[in-house]
Write a structure and sequence with these properties.
The protein has about 325 residues and is α/β, with parallel strands linked by helices. It has 9 helices and 13 strands.
Length: about 325
């Protein structure tokens, strides 16, 4: 854990100094939140690949981290892209402002693509989740993403809770064996299992599809899937192999996760902050602090360790854009 900042410590514990007297890297007002998120992703990657060198790391959103300055004109952050195998982005063409069917503005699409193309040029696979249930727009989403050199999924609901009815089969369906992200032609992001009564019902439903990549939550109602279930998911209905990635939020805490303690509502740990507006049960965290990072990676009880140990092919990491909240809070 490369950068465990001590900004949260009481100044009285550090030789009686005032906060202003602390060295810059210990003063919370000088924390570079974008850098700390890059460090987190890089450290997770090093840890996971140290266990399984083929393990895939795919951060979602926060594409500004691709450049060292977080601007479209800044230089590429080589260390960050070296640590990642793919970059995921939501609502590139449809689903603006979290609204299904709402087209993303041309200016925002262009801005996002500037970052995504930088990552693509460095060898990362780009995964786009658009949100639309209009057949014409679904087709447009797939075609636009293919033209850009990305693979994509058109979700018909912001809940990501079921296999879409349209199209009848995945875009660019194939029976190839998929052993790496760059070989994939399509994927499905279905991290919400609320429509399914049992884990096996969910597993069986996805097993009947021909998507090249499945992105699912690590848990079903708090229980992890078995190794046998994960192996079942690895085979497309047409017989080809595919990749199975586990969703994990590394930038926010969630009160329905195994690590959550009931007393945190009244007596939260120092790294746990307030609830994310509009996202019930999600809480901001000081993701650069050791307490949170120990939950996510670095030991046999950590989230990432369990994902690797369970046999998933990679981690699909949400909450990457949390750095924007802290940057805006400082302004």
């Amino acid at each position: 854990m490369r950068r465990i900042l001590l900004a949260a410590l009481s100044p009285l514990l550090i030789f009686g100094c005032s906060l202003d007297d602390l060295p810059d890297d210990l003063n919370q007002s000088t924390i570079k939140y974008d850098k700390e998120m890059r460090y987190l992703v890089e450290d997770i990657s090093a840890y996971a690949k140290g266990i399984n060198r083929h393990f895939l790391i795919v951060p979602q959103n926060g594409v500004e981290l691709i450049t060292t300055t977080t601007t479209t004109t800044g230089p590429v952050d080589e260390a960050y892209l070296d640590a990642t195998d793919g970059i995921a982005q939501e609502a590139l063409f449809f689903g603006a402002n979290g609204v299904v069917n709402e087209p993303t503005s041309e200016s925002e699409t262009k801005r996002l693509q500037t970052y995504l193309d930088l990552a693509k040029d460095e060898g990362d696979t780009i995964l786009i989740t658009d949100f639309t249930n209009i057949e014409r727009d679904i087709q447009e989403s797939y075609e636009n993403n293919e033209e850009a050199g990305y693979i994509s999924f058109a979700a018909d609901s912001e809940l990501l809770n079921d296999v879409p009815l349209y199209p009848d089969e995945p875009f660019n369906v194939n029976s190839l064996d998929i052993d790496d992200l760059e070989e994939a032609k399509n994927f499905i992001n279905i991290a919400n299992t609320s429509n399914y009564s049992t884990p096996q019902d969910f597993i069986d439903k996805l097993s009947e599809t021909d998507y090249d990549i499945l992105i699912i939550d690590f848990f079903f109602d708090g229980e992890p899937y078995t190794e046998e279930q994960i192996e079942q998911l690895r085979v497309k209905e047409n017989g080809g192999r595919r990749l199975v990635l586990a969703y994990v939020n590394v930038g926010e805490a969630q009160d329905d996760r195994y690590y959550w303690k009931s007393y945190w509502y009244n007596t939260p740990p120092e790294w746990l902050l307030g609830e994310v507006p509009g996202e019930s049960g999600n809480y901001y965290v000081k993701y650069w602090q050791e307490g949170w990072q120990k939950i996510i990676f670095g030991n046999d009880d950590s989230y990432i360790y369990m994902i690797v140990d369970a046999g998933f092919d990679g981690a699909y990491m949400d909450g990457i854009d949390a750095f924007e909240y802290f940057d805006s809070d400082d302004e």
